[in-house]
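In response to the reviewer comment on reproducibility (Comment 2.3), we provide here a single inverse folding case reported in full, input and output, so that an independent group could reproduce the run without further information from us. The structure tokens appear first.
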């Protein structure tokens, strides 16, 4: 009788342990699936949208991300145009965008690696968040590190596309105008920040498409994961 009781207890304990393992396994697998789906959505954002920024005029002809004069240099643009130097002002804006296009091309792997760092602990909250939740998470967790890595790439890019010479000529022309306050802007900082804004904006476009458009969910993982979002 004692042996039978012991066997029943062992069976019961074993069953409970197995059941607990099953219960623990299900949410973990689901969270991993969600994390993989979000990473895939962001990867697609890089592959399909950020790639466009690296093409000729990728920034300059995209009104969503086109880089203009920094706020402290608005008077520079106005001053140049007032004295008929429109082409010089236009060249200055093009130079900023060319530098960004070239820099994003070289720095894309940084964004790809950052996307891989999303953990499944935050996955469900991101999935059930607003339409840009994944992009916002990526921006929040990577912006400082990306800026530090992106800055020297932009700096090199200025030299590579000749933007440094264009802007040196532009600033010299402006500073030589009568009755103006001389300027010496940190254009590398400006382009770095604006290029990052542009990258996040383009990633968000793909995230929003996947969240809202069933046809944009082109893999089984995306279909499974974002179907959960549809039910919220």
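Designed residues, in position order:
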């Amino acid at each position: 009788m004692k042996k039978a009781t012991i066997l029943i207890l062992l069976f019961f304990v074993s069953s409970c342990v197995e059941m607990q393992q099953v219960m623990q396994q299900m949410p973990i697998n689901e969270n991993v699936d969600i994390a993989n789906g979000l990473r895939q959505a962001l990867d697609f954002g890089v592959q399909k949208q950020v790639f466009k920024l690296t093409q000729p005029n990728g920034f300059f002809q995209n009104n969503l991300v086109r880089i203009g004069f920094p706020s402290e240099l608005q008077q520079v643009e106005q001053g140049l145009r007032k004295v008929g130097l429109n082409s010089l002002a236009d060249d200055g804006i093009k130079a900023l965008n060319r530098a960004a296009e070239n820099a994003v091309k070289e720095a894309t792997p940084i964004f790809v690696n950052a996307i891989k760092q999303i953990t499944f602990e935050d996955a469900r909250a991101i999935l059930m968040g607003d339409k840009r939740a994944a992009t916002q998470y990526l921006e929040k967790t990577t912006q400082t590190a990306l800026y530090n890595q992106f800055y020297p790439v932009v700096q090199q890019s200025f030299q590579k596309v000749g933007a440094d010479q264009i802007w040196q000529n532009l600033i010299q022309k402006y500073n030589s105008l009568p009755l103006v306050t001389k300027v010496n802007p940190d254009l590398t900082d400006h382009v770095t920040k604006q290029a990052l804004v542009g990258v996040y904006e383009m990633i968000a476009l793909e995230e929003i498409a996947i969240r809202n458009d069933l046809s944009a969910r082109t893999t089984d993982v995306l279909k499974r994961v974002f179907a959960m979002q549809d039910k919220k």
